[in-house]
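name: query_chain
kind: protein
chains: 1
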Amino acid sequence: MTLEIWLAYVTTLLIFMSTPGPSHMLMLTNSMTSGFRRALATAAGDLSANTIQIFIVAVGLVGIVRSSQQFLVVIKWLGVFYLVLTGILVFRRRLDSSVADGISKRSARELYFQGFLTSATNPKAIVFFAALLPQFVNMKLPTGEQFLVLGATFIVIDGCFLTIYGVFSARIAERFRHHIGRHMNQISGGLFVLAAILLGLKEFHEN
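structure:
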């Protein structure tokens, strides 16, 4: 893989990630309510799911995944249902002092699971990786190393975007927590539902 091809790939990723997706919205929400450091578990869950999806493409299992379209659609709507249900529960949750201070008591395991599930139930992720990665792979050279470079590049760039969203959200919440503290659950619940809507709009089809 030449430097020119890698730079073209990076440019493509930056353009693609310029619009926030469900995982980015989830990171924003959890960073706002749980703090940036704790919300890093959400980013870890998202990137873990991405790593598995990239691996599936690299080892050539994407055909099996595509043949299970109906199953993936069911998985997607289970993810949407989970996010909507979580949003409703958070919206209706009684406000306590920890939430009012902008710090949630949710465990890192729960935040990790939310990040993983939101990314794993995105039905277009596999198709996206299957359509994008091979375009930057030279089949005349060992493909394993090239997929490793492309996959690692994606993880790093997506991690940077998640970090940016998380830091921005945490700082906004900290600055205005005295004004929005009483409504933190409503804001957080609404963002969960927004993430669910973004996930629901994702369709599984070949480009």
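note: The chain has one domain: 23-200.
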